[in-house]
Write a structure and sequence with these properties.
Blueprint: E1 9-18, E2 22-32, E3 38-41, H1 48-55, E4 70-73, H2 81-84, E5 88-91, H3 93-99, H4 105-111, H5 126-138, H6 154-166, E6 172-176, H7 184-200, E7 203-208, E8 220-225, E9 228-234, H8 235-238, H9 241-248, E10 252-257, E11 260-265
Helix pairs in contact: 4-6, 6-7
């Protein structure tokens, strides 16, 4: 990484309040560079989803008189939304809830070109149809494309939302708790798909409370708790039993298998 390189995403001294006094993000700073595959790991209530909402401009940081506070994408704080879609694809559980309706998976993917939920009077071009077809084929969901989103399993629907994000060939795909509600079979298929995306050259930024969501292609991990980042570094150095135990407030040992990290209950100490 070149010191002169402009970060893809940069959070600088961000504080976000919920209500009058409750800080959901507390003076956080972080740089994510193009090409980074990164996981933000933390317990429920750590502020992870709030961080995503700062990126999507659902939440705004508190203005500070004494020091600069910003959320920048490639060095800029303001973007035309159509240009921003080409940089970041964001998939969240909130988006899945909104998209669970009487529209097909194909319509959801095509709607990514217009940032809509389904298609209305938008004019589809042959290039759009071709691109959507390639993305659906890449994600191996062609056999599901005419099924309604409200008739799909959670895992099936989530893959179409990822397709919706990928039609613009974004530099990074940001996933907020992506394996919530997936059964074991759906989880395996989903993580295999994420690995395929990462190997294709799209950066993965994974926000999760589940250690085993972190695919082998992710090399950098940020730990988050109580609205703050408490550790940032190489995955092997960060994901130790001591660090993960402190993060979640429960003693665990870490087991590594085939590039995946698992938290196991630590044996009780004999007194």
């Amino acid at each position: 990484m070149n010191d002169q390189e402009v970060p893809l995403l940069e959070f600088k001294d961000l504080t976000v309040l919920k209500g009058v006094k409750a800080k959901v993000l507390n003076s956080i700073s972080l740089k994510i560079y193009e090409g980074d595959n990164l996981a933000i790991l933390g317990p429920n209530g750590a502020g992870k989803s709030s961080l995503i909402k700062v990126i999507t401009r659902e939440y705004y940081p508190v203005l500070k008189d004494d020091r600069a506070s910003s959320c920048r994408i490639l060095g800029q704080e303001r973007w035309n939304i159509s240009e921003l879609r080409k940089l970041l694809g964001i998939v969240s559980n909130d988006l899945q809830h909104v998209c669970t309706r009487d529209i097909t998976g194909l319509e959801v993917v095509l709607s990514g070109f217009f940032s809509s939920i389904g298609l209305f009077k938008e004019r589809l071009t042959p290039a759009m149809k071709k691109k959507a077809g390639r993305v659906i084929e890449f994600l191996e969901i062609d056999h599901l494309k005419h099924r309604k989103m409200n008739e799909m399993s959670s895992g099936e629907a989530r893959r179409f939302l990822i397709g919706r994000a990928l039609v613009h060939d974004p530099k990074a795909l940001i996933l907020d708790e992506p394996t919530t509600s997936l059964d074991l079979h759906a989880l395996y298929k989903f993580t295999d798909m994420l690995r395929k995306i990462a190997r294709s050259g799209t950066s993965i930024i994974l926000v999760t409370h589940n250690l085993s969501d972190i695919i082998p292609e992710i090399g950098r991990v940020v730990l988050m708790k109580d609205g703050k980042f408490c550790m940032d570094g190489d995955k092997s150095a960060v994901l130790t039993g001591k660090n993960v135990s402190k993060l979640f407030g429960t003693p665990v040992d870490i087991n590594i298998k085939d590039g995946y990290y698992y938290a196991l209950r630590a044996p009780a100490k004999v007194r």
